[in-house]
User: What shape does this take?
Amino acid sequence: MRISVARFSLISHFFRVSLYAAWMLAVGAAAYAQESSTQATQSLQSTHATRITIAAVGDLMCHESEFLVARQKDGGYNFESFFAAIAPLLSQADVAIGNLETVMAGAKARFTGYPAFNTPDEYATALKNAGFDVLTTANNHSFDRGFAGVVRTLDILDTLAMPHTGTSRSLIERSKPLMLDIKGIKLGILAYAYGLNQKHAPAKYRTVVNVIDTSAILLDIAEMEALPPTQKPDKIIVCLHWGDEYQLEPNSTQKKLAIWLFERGVDIILGSHPHVVQTVERKYVTRKSGDSADCVVIYSMGNFISGQRPIPRETGVIVWLDFEKNATTNAVSIGATAFTPTYIHKTRVDGKSSFVVLPVPDALKECEANPDYLPQPVKERLGDALKEITRQFATPNKTFKLYQPVQSEHPR
Ligand SMILES: [Zn+2]
Assistant: This one.
């Protein structure tokens, strides 16, 4: 997918940076700014269709068990086989988005898994090749290798032409929201984390990692809504790294924040961090403005790739969200919503240990046709995952359906 770029005007941009500087001073962190090469508005190559499909997944992690099996004889790393079984499905989306819950601080800083991640650059390349188009980077591991780790990770993503949001190299970069224009449908994407694992991180981390701070979020939403009509997003997506780890139900803080955001203009919330799948809601919400809006929250999408065991940490979900633009009114609405349960299968590929992300419905179908496709205990786990995630996605009005893959090649 080719990505072209548009910039905001310089004057309004200085205004935005000064608002952020004021916010930073208000939260007591050191405000500083440096020139950034990252673009705020990204236009994804489009055709003339008026319906687009977004695929979203949860946490993209790289534990030691993962990079050890990806290590090659020549000392390099290759993660491509992790995603070989899922890439054809992901490629059916116009845009695939996930949460990169690690940093790439370079080989000199020694590669590590939990508790302070540092992942080989080849991991990002494999994500790109798997079909990911956008990565969020705000999470409790964003600052695992300090400011240098944040900067180098964003540099690597820029080298891959992978748009990102959630961490920034400067206040100027922080002030530029990520905007996607896909076939004429404009999406604003924001990302925030509840905090960091490092209890004693310097206060300036709040300039580089977006934290869940309602004043900052309000400023970001207001900034998007103040854009001229040609740039203003049709829908605002907020990616939140929140909730309690390994809990199958969202907590009351998540539920309250979801409503608070919907009332203030957010349309979609994509959740990550619990490492298990949590439930979804799709409902009409009355905004502070008085308008009624169709809003969707996925509280947690689980692990998409991770070394964490056992089930349910081995499972995740791809969420499919359609957006439709009315040809007469140009109004954009949320269309069909669907899900695909996924399973992180630890197996052998070409005689070597590997992790393989499997689409659960397809893998179960394959097992019916070929009983030796997976060992019996794995088949049982896939069956359990399908049942459990279907339960989590069973909204009262059944708005989320099991995704039916497009049979013909998608004209991406
Ligand atoms: Zn996390």
